[in-house]
Specification:
Helix 1 packs across helix 3. Strands 1-2 form a two-stranded parallel ribbon. The chain is built from 7 helices and 2 strands; from the N terminus they run H-H-H-H-E-H-E-H-H. It is mainly alpha-helical and 135 residues long. It folds into 2 domains: 55 residues, no CATH class; 71 residues, no CATH class. The longest helix has 18 residues.
């Protein structure tokens, strides 16, 4: 069960694209995803999934946005199915409405939810500019 859940999660994160170069054969790629999922399932506490599901269903950060004092760089990937770019307009409006100074940057990446790491070079200039603007 946990292995299957992790395989589905990895696929939704964009692992297919991340592994395509190292595993061009679809069967080999699927086997690698299963291998990674089994390794994760062997060490992950299933009770954590209950806590995560509860937090997802019940926690709303909106009322707390006004407590943010730092400037924010909000980065999403074009292919992220977990946090799609369609969220950006609402999140940015909520941040600004709460008085938070925020910038948005979208990564043009095929790596889905893992794009911030897998394609870090694509948003590094935006991060550098953001950091430089803090001084």
């Amino acid at each position: 069960m946990m292995t299957t859940l992790r395989e589905e999660t990895l696929r939704s994160y964009g692992i297919e694209a991340a592994l395509a170069a190292d595993f061009p054969d679809p069967a080999a790629r699927a086997a690698e995803i299963t291998r990674q999922a089994r390794a994760w399932a062997g060490v992950f506490d299933a009770n954590s999934m209950i806590a995560l599901a509860d937090a997802l269903a019940t926690y709303d950060v909106t009322d707390h946005l006004g407590r943010i004092r730092a400037r924010v760089l909000y980065v999403l990937s074009r292919t992220d199915a977990i946090f799609p770019p369609s969220l950006a307009e609402g999140v940015m409006a909520a941040l600004r409405g709460a008085g938070v100074v925020a910038n948005y940057f979208e990564i043009d990446s095929d790596f889905g939810h893992t794009a911030s790491g897998a394609d870090a070079a694509k948003w590094a200039p935006a991060l550098r500019s953001f950091i430089d603007s803090l001084s």
